[in-house]
Amino acid sequence: MRKPHLGLEEKTALGTQKFLSRYTTIDYLFGEFIRDLDLTEIFKGKKLRRIDKNVACIYIGSHLLTPIHELLHAGANKLLGYENQKIVIGNLDGGFLWEKIIPGVTAENLPLWKGGYVLCHKSSPSLTDIVIPGLAPYIMTPIGIYLLLEGKRRKCIPMIIAGCGFVAYHADAVFGDIMKAGGDIVIGAADYCCRIAGHPMNMNENGLKYILAIPGVFVGLALWRYSYHYFRRAVNYIREKAHGIDSTLPT
Predict the structure, then answer these.
(1) Structural domain boundaries, residue 52
(2) Fewest CB within 10 angstroms: 70, 116, 153, 178, which?
(3) CB within 8 A of 89, min separation 6: which ones?
(4) In the chain, what's the furthest Cα-to-Cα distance?
(5) Taking a C-beta distance cutoff of 8 angstroms, is the pair 92, 67 a contact?
(6) CB 166, CB 140: distance < 8 Å
(7) 236 part of a folded domain
């Protein structure tokens, strides 16, 4: 009996499902990212060559989009009334070029995993003053998801690379901006409750910062995972209406 013909999207989903089905927790947390960033069915050739090209798309996309990421951090600071002391882009991400093009940007030699950073001094900032600039770049995640999924459907490499960059930045935020935002939200909520009770919170008292770090991790993970999940649902809804894509199929 002949096997039914599978389209590109079905092949991509089945290619990673064998791994994900064995590890439920990994699938729950990372499954959507892994499936979206799996490009091995886009390319031709041996499996290792296809994996190399897959990694290259993610690497190139994330490094090309570093200026947008850092400028969104800096822009959010400005909108909240703060001055940015430094907007840095690593030389590995083209900082030596961007500092000549974008006013206020400087280049530094940074580790491979650190594309750049924004330095902004804030005296007695509110919770929103901390969280909003930290999360500002991730307004680009839905655009990245759309570019990535549509790029895979059309086999358009420029769209795929741009989409990979935004999606990879969101995935990486589990170790950075979004995880930190989860901790800040927990600390801010605890501080607010303490002030209402008339007992201002002292983070250095009885190891409080270590105790609050635990719920902070869970809030950060939830914020990271569900933001991507609902961004993705919204994008698939738009694709369904605009292009007639069946969003119930794996993409």
Answers:
(1) 8-64+130-243
(2) 153
(3) 66, 67, 70, 95, 98, 99, 105, 106, 107, 108, 115, 116
(4) 75
(5) no
(6) yes
(7) yes
Q: What is the pLDDT along the chain (251 residues), one digit of tens a residue?
A: 455 555 555 555 555 555 555 556 677 778 889 889 999 888 888 888 899 999 999 999 999 999 999 999 999 999 999 999 999 999 999 999 999 999 999 999 999 888 999 999 888 788 899 999 999 999 999 999 999 999 999 999 999 999 999 999 998 888 889 988 998 898 888 888 888 887 777 766 666 777 888 888 899 999 999 999 999 999 999 998 887 776 555 55
What is the number of domains present in the chain? Answer: 1
Please tell me the pTM assigned to this model: 0.82
CA-wise closest residue to 61 among 163, 140, 157, 173? 163
- Inside any domain, residue 60: yes
* HSE, side-chain direction, 13 A CA sphere, residue 63: 16
Residue 84 inside a domain? The answer is: no
**Burial class of 164 by CB neighbour count within 10 A (0 to 12, 13 to 18, 19+):** buried
Residue 73 included in any domain? no
